[in-house]
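Table 4 source record.
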Amino acid sequence: MAQRDQKILFIDDDKNFRNVTAYLLKDEGYKVTVAENSKEGLAQLDAFQPDVILSDLKMPVMDGMEFLR
């Protein structure tokens, strides 16, 4: 079981996959916030301060590798 303070930022442009994955992670006890693209993910970094970032690589606007840079 996850510790209460572990936070995950999950970035994926597929809405269904994003929602199901976030639900499963929350069910395991993680605090999860989601973003539909990398720009939205960047905007959430400072406020949410995730411990882990899970990101799709192929997305419109900005791909996952550009996000990581």
